[in-house]
Automatic annotation (TrEMBL):
Residues 1-24 form the signal peptide. It comes from Junco hyemalis. Belongs to the ADP-ribosyl cyclase family. SUPFAM superfamilies: N-(deoxy)ribosyltransferase-like (SSF52309). This is ADP-ribosyl cyclase/cyclic ADP-ribose hydrolase. The lineage of its organism: Eukaryota, Metazoa, Chordata, Craniata, Vertebrata.
Length: 315
Protein backbone atom coordinates (compact mmCIF):
# COMPACT_ATOMS: atom_id res chain seq x y z
CA UNK A 1 0.00 0.00 0.00
CA UNK A 2 2.86 2.40 0.88
CA UNK A 3 4.51 1.99 -2.51
CA UNK A 4 1.22 2.83 -4.27
CA UNK A 5 0.76 6.13 -2.46
CA UNK A 6 4.39 7.30 -2.15
CA UNK A 7 4.39 9.07 -5.58
CA UNK A 8 1.19 10.87 -4.64
CA UNK A 9 2.68 11.84 -1.29
CA UNK A 10 5.81 13.17 -3.05
CA UNK A 11 3.73 15.32 -5.40
CA UNK A 12 1.67 16.68 -2.51
CA UNK A 13 4.77 17.68 -0.54
CA UNK A 14 6.29 19.31 -3.65
CA UNK A 15 3.15 21.34 -4.26
CA UNK A 16 3.02 22.45 -0.63
CA UNK A 17 6.65 23.58 -0.76
CA UNK A 18 6.04 25.49 -4.00
CA UNK A 19 2.98 27.15 -2.52
CA UNK A 20 4.96 28.16 0.58
CA UNK A 21 7.72 29.63 -1.59
CA UNK A 22 5.20 31.68 -3.57
CA UNK A 23 3.54 32.85 -0.39
CA UNK A 24 6.93 33.76 1.15
CA UNK A 25 7.82 36.04 -1.77
CA UNK A 26 4.89 38.40 -1.53
CA UNK A 27 6.30 41.22 -3.67
CA UNK A 28 8.08 41.47 -7.03
CA UNK A 29 11.05 43.44 -5.76
CA UNK A 30 14.19 42.18 -4.04
CA UNK A 31 14.08 41.71 -0.30
CA UNK A 32 15.78 43.81 2.37
CA UNK A 33 19.56 44.01 2.01
CA UNK A 34 21.21 41.54 4.35
CA UNK A 35 22.90 43.03 7.46
CA UNK A 36 21.03 46.30 6.92
CA UNK A 37 21.53 47.55 10.49
CA UNK A 38 25.29 46.92 10.42
CA UNK A 39 25.63 48.60 7.03
CA UNK A 40 23.69 51.73 8.03
CA UNK A 41 25.50 52.18 11.34
CA UNK A 42 28.86 51.39 9.75
CA UNK A 43 28.27 53.89 6.95
CA UNK A 44 27.29 56.50 9.52
CA UNK A 45 30.63 56.20 11.31
CA UNK A 46 32.50 56.05 8.01
CA UNK A 47 30.86 59.31 6.92
CA UNK A 48 31.41 61.33 10.08
CA UNK A 49 34.97 60.02 10.62
CA UNK A 50 36.37 59.69 7.08
CA UNK A 51 34.12 60.94 4.28
CA UNK A 52 32.99 64.28 5.69
CA UNK A 53 34.11 64.90 9.30
CA UNK A 54 33.03 68.53 8.90
CA UNK A 55 29.42 67.49 9.66
CA UNK A 56 30.41 67.00 13.29
CA UNK A 57 29.31 64.37 15.78
CA UNK A 58 26.21 62.31 15.05
CA UNK A 59 24.54 59.62 17.16
CA UNK A 60 24.69 56.70 14.73
CA UNK A 61 22.67 54.30 16.89
CA UNK A 62 19.92 56.89 17.30
CA UNK A 63 19.98 57.52 13.54
CA UNK A 64 19.48 53.80 12.86
CA UNK A 65 16.53 53.64 15.27
CA UNK A 66 14.89 56.64 13.57
CA UNK A 67 15.44 55.05 10.16
CA UNK A 68 14.07 51.65 11.22
CA UNK A 69 11.05 53.06 13.03
CA UNK A 70 9.95 54.86 9.87
CA UNK A 71 8.85 51.58 8.28
CA UNK A 72 8.93 48.75 10.86
CA UNK A 73 5.56 47.31 11.97
CA UNK A 74 3.82 49.09 9.09
CA UNK A 75 2.13 48.14 5.87
CA UNK A 76 5.03 48.25 3.35
CA UNK A 77 2.73 49.99 0.88
CA UNK A 78 1.76 52.73 3.29
CA UNK A 79 5.07 54.38 4.18
CA UNK A 80 5.01 58.16 3.69
CA UNK A 81 7.93 60.60 3.23
CA UNK A 82 7.08 62.33 6.50
CA UNK A 83 7.70 59.04 8.34
CA UNK A 84 11.42 59.73 7.79
CA UNK A 85 11.38 63.29 9.18
CA UNK A 86 13.16 62.41 12.42
CA UNK A 87 15.85 60.54 10.47
CA UNK A 88 16.35 63.54 8.15
CA UNK A 89 16.59 65.91 11.12
CA UNK A 90 19.20 63.73 12.84
CA UNK A 91 21.36 63.40 9.71
CA UNK A 92 20.96 66.88 8.24
CA UNK A 93 23.99 69.05 7.52
CA UNK A 94 24.85 72.01 5.30
CA UNK A 95 25.29 71.40 1.57
CA UNK A 96 28.22 73.51 0.30
CA UNK A 97 27.32 76.22 -2.27
CA UNK A 98 28.11 75.42 -5.93
CA UNK A 99 28.52 71.70 -5.23
CA UNK A 100 25.01 70.32 -5.75
CA UNK A 101 24.79 67.74 -8.53
CA UNK A 102 21.34 66.59 -9.68
CA UNK A 103 20.90 63.70 -12.09
CA UNK A 104 18.67 61.25 -13.92
CA UNK A 105 19.53 57.80 -15.36
CA UNK A 106 23.27 57.81 -14.59
CA UNK A 107 23.76 57.06 -10.89
CA UNK A 108 27.11 55.25 -11.20
CA UNK A 109 28.58 58.03 -13.34
CA UNK A 110 27.40 60.65 -10.82
CA UNK A 111 29.00 58.65 -8.00
CA UNK A 112 32.34 58.69 -9.85
CA UNK A 113 32.09 62.36 -10.78
CA UNK A 114 31.15 63.53 -7.29
CA UNK A 115 34.02 61.54 -5.72
CA UNK A 116 32.32 61.36 -2.31
CA UNK A 117 31.85 65.09 -2.14
CA UNK A 118 35.37 66.02 -3.19
CA UNK A 119 34.22 67.45 -6.54
CA UNK A 120 30.46 67.69 -6.05
CA UNK A 121 27.90 66.64 -3.46
CA UNK A 122 25.02 64.69 -4.98
CA UNK A 123 22.12 63.58 -2.79
CA UNK A 124 23.98 60.28 -2.34
CA UNK A 125 26.96 62.18 -0.93
CA UNK A 126 24.98 63.80 1.89
CA UNK A 127 24.88 61.88 5.15
CA UNK A 128 21.18 61.06 4.79
CA UNK A 129 21.68 59.83 1.22
CA UNK A 130 24.99 58.06 1.88
CA UNK A 131 23.40 55.84 4.53
CA UNK A 132 20.74 54.50 2.16
CA UNK A 133 22.44 54.56 -1.24
CA UNK A 134 22.03 51.30 -3.24
CA UNK A 135 20.17 49.60 -0.35
CA UNK A 136 16.73 47.98 -0.28
CA UNK A 137 14.52 47.67 2.79
CA UNK A 138 10.96 47.09 3.94
CA UNK A 139 9.09 45.80 6.95
CA UNK A 140 5.86 43.89 7.44
CA UNK A 141 2.55 44.96 8.90
CA UNK A 142 2.25 44.04 12.59
CA UNK A 143 5.73 42.54 12.65
CA UNK A 144 8.94 43.93 14.19
CA UNK A 145 11.11 42.17 11.62
CA UNK A 146 12.45 43.08 8.19
CA UNK A 147 11.24 41.33 5.06
CA UNK A 148 14.29 39.66 3.53
CA UNK A 149 12.27 37.77 0.93
CA UNK A 150 10.78 40.60 -1.12
CA UNK A 151 9.82 44.28 -1.06
CA UNK A 152 7.22 46.14 -3.13
CA UNK A 153 8.29 47.97 -6.27
CA UNK A 154 7.04 51.36 -7.43
CA UNK A 155 4.78 49.55 -9.91
CA UNK A 156 3.13 47.64 -7.05
CA UNK A 157 2.65 50.62 -4.75
CA UNK A 158 3.86 54.20 -4.81
CA UNK A 159 4.21 54.61 -1.07
CA UNK A 160 6.80 51.90 -0.52
CA UNK A 161 9.60 52.36 2.02
CA UNK A 162 12.44 53.04 -0.42
CA UNK A 163 10.70 55.44 -2.82
CA UNK A 164 9.13 57.43 0.01
CA UNK A 165 12.57 57.78 1.57
CA UNK A 166 14.11 59.16 -1.63
CA UNK A 167 11.23 61.60 -2.04
CA UNK A 168 11.92 63.34 1.26
CA UNK A 169 15.68 63.07 0.68
CA UNK A 170 15.31 64.73 -2.74
CA UNK A 171 13.07 67.50 -1.39
CA UNK A 172 15.49 68.22 1.47
CA UNK A 173 18.49 68.21 -0.87
CA UNK A 174 16.86 70.56 -3.38
CA UNK A 175 15.67 73.01 -0.72
CA UNK A 176 19.18 73.43 0.65
CA UNK A 177 21.12 73.59 -2.63
CA UNK A 178 22.61 76.98 -3.47
CA UNK A 179 24.89 78.91 -5.81
CA UNK A 180 25.60 77.24 -9.15
CA UNK A 181 23.87 73.85 -9.31
CA UNK A 182 24.80 71.15 -11.81
CA UNK A 183 22.45 68.72 -13.56
CA UNK A 184 23.86 65.63 -15.28
CA UNK A 185 21.51 63.94 -17.74
CA UNK A 186 21.87 60.83 -19.90
CA UNK A 187 21.44 61.74 -23.58
CA UNK A 188 21.15 58.05 -24.50
CA UNK A 189 18.29 57.22 -22.11
CA UNK A 190 15.13 55.76 -23.59
CA UNK A 191 12.26 58.17 -23.18
CA UNK A 192 14.54 61.19 -23.03
CA UNK A 193 17.25 62.68 -20.83
CA UNK A 194 14.68 64.55 -18.72
CA UNK A 195 12.03 61.99 -17.69
CA UNK A 196 8.58 63.07 -16.61
CA UNK A 197 7.51 61.83 -14.14
CA UNK A 198 10.85 61.61 -12.36
CA UNK A 199 12.51 62.58 -9.08
CA UNK A 200 14.23 65.60 -10.59
CA UNK A 201 11.08 66.83 -12.33
CA UNK A 202 8.61 66.10 -9.52
CA UNK A 203 10.49 66.56 -6.23
CA UNK A 204 13.67 68.54 -6.84
CA UNK A 205 12.86 71.34 -9.31
CA UNK A 206 9.66 72.33 -7.41
CA UNK A 207 11.81 72.80 -4.30
CA UNK A 208 14.58 74.90 -5.86
CA UNK A 209 14.92 78.16 -3.92
CA UNK A 210 15.07 81.01 -6.44
CA UNK A 211 16.82 83.35 -4.00
CA UNK A 212 19.57 80.79 -3.30
CA UNK A 213 20.40 79.47 -6.79
CA UNK A 214 22.42 81.73 -9.10
CA UNK A 215 22.64 79.42 -12.12
CA UNK A 216 21.60 75.97 -13.34
CA UNK A 217 24.27 74.24 -15.43
CA UNK A 218 23.00 71.29 -17.48
CA UNK A 219 25.30 68.61 -18.91
CA UNK A 220 23.80 66.15 -21.39
CA UNK A 221 26.21 63.24 -21.84
CA UNK A 222 25.67 60.24 -24.12
CA UNK A 223 26.76 56.72 -23.18
CA UNK A 224 30.01 55.89 -24.97
CA UNK A 225 28.38 53.02 -26.84
CA UNK A 226 24.88 54.44 -26.73
CA UNK A 227 22.77 56.43 -29.20
CA UNK A 228 22.44 60.21 -29.20
CA UNK A 229 18.73 60.46 -28.35
CA UNK A 230 18.68 63.83 -26.61
CA UNK A 231 20.75 67.01 -26.66
CA UNK A 232 20.71 70.61 -25.50
CA UNK A 233 17.90 72.57 -27.14
CA UNK A 234 16.05 69.50 -28.40
CA UNK A 235 13.40 67.05 -27.24
CA UNK A 236 13.07 66.63 -23.45
CA UNK A 237 16.13 68.77 -22.67
CA UNK A 238 14.48 71.71 -24.41
CA UNK A 239 11.42 71.12 -22.21
CA UNK A 240 13.66 71.25 -19.14
CA UNK A 241 15.46 74.41 -20.27
CA UNK A 242 12.15 76.13 -20.96
CA UNK A 243 10.74 75.13 -17.58
CA UNK A 244 13.75 76.42 -15.66
CA UNK A 245 13.90 79.70 -17.60
CA UNK A 246 10.18 80.22 -17.04
CA UNK A 247 10.82 79.83 -13.32
CA UNK A 248 13.37 82.64 -13.60
CA UNK A 249 16.64 80.67 -13.45
CA UNK A 250 19.77 81.45 -15.45
CA UNK A 251 20.37 78.26 -17.48
CA UNK A 252 23.29 76.97 -19.55
CA UNK A 253 23.51 73.62 -21.35
CA UNK A 254 26.49 71.68 -22.72
CA UNK A 255 26.51 68.44 -24.69
CA UNK A 256 29.11 65.78 -23.81
CA UNK A 257 30.90 67.94 -21.26
CA UNK A 258 34.60 67.06 -21.56
CA UNK A 259 35.32 66.45 -17.86
CA UNK A 260 32.53 63.88 -17.71
CA UNK A 261 33.63 62.31 -21.00
CA UNK A 262 37.10 61.77 -19.53
CA UNK A 263 35.52 59.68 -16.76
CA UNK A 264 33.46 57.62 -19.21
CA UNK A 265 36.49 57.04 -21.42
CA UNK A 266 38.45 55.38 -18.62
CA UNK A 267 36.45 52.25 -19.50
CA UNK A 268 36.63 52.80 -23.29
CA UNK A 269 40.13 54.22 -23.99
CA UNK A 270 40.18 53.01 -27.60
CA UNK A 271 36.70 54.13 -28.58
CA UNK A 272 36.43 56.75 -31.33
CA UNK A 273 34.50 59.07 -28.98
CA UNK A 274 37.51 59.04 -26.67
CA UNK A 275 40.08 60.28 -29.23
CA UNK A 276 40.60 63.63 -27.53
CA UNK A 277 42.91 66.08 -29.29
CA UNK A 278 46.23 66.70 -27.56
CA UNK A 279 46.62 70.12 -25.99
CA UNK A 280 50.27 70.27 -27.14
CA UNK A 281 50.84 70.84 -30.90
CA UNK A 282 52.78 67.96 -32.45
CA UNK A 283 55.04 70.42 -34.31
CA UNK A 284 56.56 71.57 -31.04
CA UNK A 285 57.83 68.15 -30.09
CA UNK A 286 60.59 67.94 -32.75
CA UNK A 287 62.30 71.24 -31.98
CA UNK A 288 62.00 70.70 -28.23
CA UNK A 289 63.66 67.31 -28.54
CA UNK A 290 66.39 68.62 -30.88
CA UNK A 291 67.07 71.60 -28.65
CA UNK A 292 67.50 69.31 -25.67
CA UNK A 293 69.98 67.25 -27.69
CA UNK A 294 71.89 70.38 -28.78
CA UNK A 295 72.01 71.72 -25.24
CA UNK A 296 73.35 68.40 -24.00
CA UNK A 297 76.10 68.40 -26.66
CA UNK A 298 77.11 71.97 -25.73
CA UNK A 299 77.20 71.04 -22.06
CA UNK A 300 79.46 68.06 -22.77
CA UNK A 301 81.79 70.19 -24.90
CA UNK A 302 82.10 72.92 -22.24
CA UNK A 303 82.72 70.33 -19.52
CA UNK A 304 85.43 68.61 -21.59
CA UNK A 305 87.09 71.96 -22.42
CA UNK A 306 87.14 72.89 -18.74
CA UNK A 307 88.77 69.57 -17.90
CA UNK A 308 91.52 70.14 -20.50
CA UNK A 309 92.11 73.66 -19.19
CA UNK A 310 92.54 72.46 -15.56
CA UNK A 311 94.82 69.63 -16.78
CA UNK A 312 97.05 72.16 -18.61
CA UNK A 313 97.38 74.32 -15.49
CA UNK A 314 98.49 71.40 -13.38
CA UNK A 315 101.10 70.16 -15.80
Amino acid sequence: MMSLFSPLLFVSVLCMNSFSAVQGKKWKGEGTTQNLESIVIGRCYEYIRLVNPAVGEKNCSQIWEAFKNAFINKDPCNILPEDYELFINLTFHTIPPNKSLFWENNQLLVTSLAARGRRYMSVGDTLFGFLADFLIWCGQADSPGLDYESCPTMAECENNAVDSFWRIASVTYAKHSSGVVQVLLNGSAEGGAYPQPGFFADYEIPNFQKDKISQVVIWVVDDIEGPDRDSCGTNSVKTLETRLKTLGFDVTCTDNYKSVMFLLCLDYPDHSKCAFASSAPAAQRGPISSDRGGSWNKLMFVSFAGFLFRFALVY
